[in-house]
Design a protein that fits this description.
The complex is a heterodimer of chains A (178) and B (128). Chain A has 178 residues and is mainly alpha-helical. Chain A has a domain of 123 residues. The longest helix of chain A has 65 residues. The radius of gyration of chain A is 29 Å and the shape is elongated. Chain B has one domain: Response regulator (Rossmann fold), CATH 3.40.50. Helices cover 43% and strands 16% of the residues of chain B. In chain B, strands 2-1-3-4-5 form a five-stranded parallel β-sheet, sandwiched between helices. The chains are: A mainly alpha (178), B alpha/beta (128). At the A-B interface, helix 1, helix 2 and helix 3 of A face helix 1 of B.
Chain lengths: 178, 128
């Protein structure tokens, strides 16, 4: 069996190529580590928060719907015969449909748990590769004016988290003052 | 024998909207005495304090599931003949069988409607 070549036996260009490749790989892993840390520290917790908001939001909506039904039931007391029956049947259907919140909530809980597992695995990975994480934050600070790139590359965050949300009055103020 | 609509009924679910819906349907049928709990552990505690004529429980709850609850109820000398209906999104055949073996009297799959609840209640408690 041929012996494995040792580094001294390999030509200088070949060993330089290997070293360069190893350096490239470690930079790539470092870059990935940065991405994974961002996922773990920001994106996944944000996604979990959004899912929790959905559960809370749908619960509030379902309760609002059922509160309205209670109001209609009080009005229904003034009806009789077929109209009362029809309204009663329709209200029952609405209550049945409000069961959506339970099923949606269970599915979301399942997804949240899965995200939690992913977060855990990312945490393990990033702790292993943290030493290779490179600092790529070399972009210059913004100058305060809006460039064409900013208008094109704007980040959209979707619905606001209720506790941090900007209300309409604040938006109107911003809009008229800018 | 006619169903005693004044008997205490315990509704167990970790989703308050579902408790509200089931309680609403029970009141439409004439039941007047409805309590609720948000997991099996809380439910079992309540059952230790009051004689419930019926338990309607979800399965997927934490820390104590509906399956844990029915097993605890069937293992308790004082509670073991309490009528128990599971109302759950779990619909796989093996889960239905598991619940039956654990001692539930009836099984309702979510989403459900008022007629199904009434039918299952009649099957467990008798006509009303």
């Amino acid at each position: 069996m041929p012996e494995e070549p040792v580094l001294e036996d390999v030509g200088a260009p070949e060993s330089e190529r290997w070293l360069a490749e190893a350096d490239d790989q470690s930079r790539a892993i470092g870059s990935l580590a940065i991405g994974m840390m961002n996922l773990r520290q920001a994106e996944i917790p944000n996604a979990i928060e959004q899912l929790d908001d959905i559960v809370r939001g749908t619960e509030a909506a379902a309760n609002q719907i059922m509160d309205a039904c209670t109001t209609l039931e009080a009005v229904m007391a003034n009806l009789s015969g077929e109209p009362a029956q029809r309204v009663g049947d329709a209200l029952t259907k609405i209550y049945e449909a409000c069961g959506f919140q339970d099923l949606a909530g269970q599915r979301i809980t399942h997804v949240t748990k899965t995200l939690g597992l992913i977060e855990g695995k990312l945490s393990e990975l990033t702790s292993r590769f943290a030493i290779l994480a490179c600092d790529f934050s070399d972009e210059p600070e913004g100058s305060g004016t809006v460039s064409d790139d900013a208008l094109v590359n704007v980040r959209l965050d979707g619905p606001q988290h209720p506790e941090d949300a900007t209300d309409q009055a604040s938006v109107d103020r911003l809009f008229h003052e800018s | 024998m006619a169903v005693d609509l004044s008997m205490p009924v315990l509704v167990v679910d970790d989703f308050p909207t579902t408790i509200r819906i089931i309680s609403k349907f029970l009141r439409q049928l004439g039941f007047t005495n409805i309590d609720s709990a948000s997991d099996g552990g809380q439910a079992f505690q309540l059952m230790g304090q009051r004689d419930y004529g019926l338990v309607i429980s979800d399965w997927n709850m934490e820390p104590v599931t509906g399956l844990d609850l029915v097993k605890a109820v069937r293992n308790d000398d004082r509670l073991n003949d309490t009528p128990f209906i599971m109302v759950t999104a779990e619909s796989k055949p093996e889960n239905v069988i598991l619940a039956k073996l654990a001692g539930v009297n009836s099984y309702i799959v979510k989403p459900f409607n008022a007629d199904t609840l009434k039918m299952k209640l009649s099957g467990v408690l008798g006509r009303f």
